[in-house]
Amino acid sequence: MHNIIYLKLKYKxxxxxxxxxxxxxxxxxxxxxxxxxxxxxxxxxxxxxxxNGILIAEVTRSITxxxxxxxxxxxxxxxxxxxxxxARSGRPGPVLIDIPKDVQQQMVVPNWDQPMRLxxxxxxxxxxxxxxxxxxxxxxxxxxxxxxxxxxGGCLNSSKELKRFVELTRIPVAxxxxxxxxxPCSSDEEISLQMLGMxxxxxxxxxxxxxxxxxxxxxxxxxxxxxxLEAFASRAKIVHIDIDSAxxxxxxxxxxxxxxxxxxxxxxxxSILEDRGNGGKISPDFxxxxxxxxxxxxxxxxxxxxxxxxxPPQYAIQVLDELxxxxxxxxxxxxxxxxxxxxxxxYNKPRQWLTSSGLGAMGFGLPAAVGAAVARPDAVVVDIDGxxxxxxxxxxxxxxxxxxxxxxxxxxxxxxLGMVVQWxxxxxxxxxxxxxxxxxSDGLYWNxxxxxxxxxxxx
Length: 459
Known about the structure:
Layout: E1 6-8, H1 14-30, E2 36-41, H2 56-59, E3 66-69, H3 76-88, E4 95-100, H4 101-104, H5 119-124, H6 131-143, E5 147-151, H7 159-169, E6 173-175, E7 192-195, H8 202-210, E8 213-217, H9 223-226, E9 237-242, E10 256-259, H10 262-278, H11 287-299, H12 313-324, E11 329-332, H13 336-344, E12 353-354, H14 365-375, E13 381-386, H15 387-390, H16 396-402, E14 407-412, H17 418-427, H18 448-454
Parallel strand pairs: 1-2, 2-4, 3-4, 5-6, 5-8, 6-7, 8-9, 9-10, 11-12, 11-13, 13-14
Helix pairs in contact: 6-10, 7-10, 8-11, 12-13
């Protein structure tokens, strides 16, 4: 998947931009990759109250990494250069460029050599990891008996370094929803604990609860992972490494913290561990701890109910994993199907798993699959979607057809907003609030096969 998207609209419409604002918010929450977009304005009179006009820079100011409103056409080369740098450096995030129509229509000979004006931003970028802190982390590892790695989306660009760190230490790895794929889920059963948190498995959550050292790399201690903060990893010393200083200590106070690029930090840790290994110093043996976790995995595996001849959605995802060899790019909407896809498909590579986690935007799956299919035409791309999420952006079937994209779509159609129903059953005595998507008279709401025929998807 491309790391940066540059979108330039010839005309600007309020409803479109409000939708893009939600898109910005989602990417800013997950910080899985930067977005750069240029937008146009009908006129430059901010007080004219023109039709469908909106000050998009103000709308998105709190949910983007940075905003630009171009007032001088000669500034465009410098601003675009700065925007790409801002989007990719530090904690990745969306940068918005608003180009008014009158500026767009001006003629200019561009000066491509303008220097960037980011002095204050550059001074705030994380410094290289401190050798003293890295040594302290290694000492904590050597003193621990039950360490566990808690890795998130911040490790997606450091998969190689993370795998080397695990090879050297043999510490079990538990991933957040956004961290899936940063360490292979199909790797050594004793090492890969897969997903932890509210929708995670017993073994991963047990490992955090019983650990004496929690290595939190590229995570933000989200409430869907921690639950009650005071009870989360209450027995453990916590090491938190993140590129964003605002995340350190925000939810859970660490014993050792480092604001640094996790890739550089892991490189430093690996160098220290390799030097110690070459010097004959034996690394600690965590085999008893791994065996304890293996027993938990055996005693409490992920399971699902069966209903006669009906195909359980979890089983369908397991079969998809087998058919694709765990190598497909999977996108999802938001809901039960999203959690089942995280649990029952084994992700072995970073950015193989495309989902909306921070904001939880239904309808994310199909457009994400379209983007993945364009960026990776060699890959198998599958959108695993619920019927509720799928209809949010069903019009993108036309895009798939027009562009002849080989996107596969697996719809887990249960005629309900399944995740909301789950919460209604658990917390609201099963009172339904428009979560049934069927027609009460015949039990059907829409027919996916007929819809696909209509869009020219089936022949």
